[in-house]
Automatic annotation (TrEMBL):
All residue ranges annotated as the Resolvase/invertase-type recombinase catalytic domain in the record: 6-157
UniProt-listed SMART domains: Resolvase
Pfam families, sorted: Recombinase (PF07508), Resolvase (PF00239)
InterPro entries reported for this sequence: DNA_bind_recomb_sf, DNA_bind_recombinase_dom, Resolv_N, Resolvase-like_N_sf, SSR_resolvase
GO MF term (any one): DNA strand exchange activity
Signal peptide segment: none
Domain of life (superkingdom): Bacteria
Protein name per UniProt: Recombinase family protein
Length: 239
């Protein structure tokens, strides 16, 4: 007679791009397909963690991880399955101990991609640590690449998103993002930039404050970008 093993699956995405995309359904389909192939496995629980960085956020501050640990202690499942072990986290000084914690509680730790992680001999523990050490390094390198890319975009005047500040307008930069959308480049808005320059002169030369400047602009019927009238937040524009 085949022994039934109760399986819990955990899915995690860390970025908004993954959240808006197809990452969670992909992890779910892969885990469920593996469960169907394993004799005696039965899916009994699924945990989903959305928009949480496994590199920046400690497991102690992740509600889904703490709930999974509590359920393991209460004997609600026998196997914890993830798409890859880095879905549990990417912290090389913490996540290997989390894996080992579950194993010590009698939980089988499985990954669709990497198979089972046992902690029976010294080499098992070493492989467990090396996996997350490598994952942590990849996260740092990815972060460095993203930061450098953003720095270059700023230096080139490419707009990274949000509302275009007063005093500027967006033009086609000739570059595209990953979704094929045109990236804008900020250039000076000739009429608005004159208003911004005047604001700064009023502050530097005549000692005007925010509300006094807003009152003056409203009296002169100088249009804003969106609001009906100027207010104290005019200083959000840039020269």
């Amino acid at each position: 007679m085949v022994q039934i093993k109760r399986v819990a699956a955990l899915y995690r995405v860390s970025t908004k791009g993954q959240l808006d995309g197809n990452d969670i359904p992909m992890q779910r389909r892969s885990c469920r397909a593996m469960i169907e192939k394993q004799q005696g496995w039965k899916l009994v629980k699924e945990y989903t963690e959305r928009g949480v960085s496994g590199f920046k956020v400690s497991a102690l501050n992740r509600d889904v991880i703490q709930r999974t640990k509590e359920d393991a202690e209460n004997g609600l499942f026998d196997v914890l399955l993830v798409f890859m072990f880095d879905r549990l986290g990417r912290k090389d000084d913490e996540t290997p101990f989390l894996v080992e914690w579950f194993v010590n509680k009698g939980i089988e730790m499985w990954s669709v991609i990497e198979g089972q992680q046992k902690i029976e001999v010294h080499t098992d523990r070493m492989i467990n640590f090396l996996r997350f050490w490598q994952s942590s390094g990849e996260s740092r390198k990815t972060s460095d690449r993203v930061n450098e890319k953003h720095k270059q975009m700023v230096e080139e005047g490419i707009f990274r998103g949000g509302g275009i500040p007063y005093g500027y307008r967006g033009v086609d930069s000739g570059n595209f993002n990953k979704k094929g959308k045109v990236l804008l480049k900020l250039v000076k808005h000739e009429e608005e930039s004159l208003v911004v320059q005047r604001m700064f002169r009023l502050v530097l030369e005549e000692g005007y404050g925010q509300l006094r400047i807003a009152k003056l602009l409203n009296e002169e019927n100088i249009p804003t970008r969106k609001a009906k009238q100027w207010g104290g937040g005019y200083c959000e524009c840039h020269t």
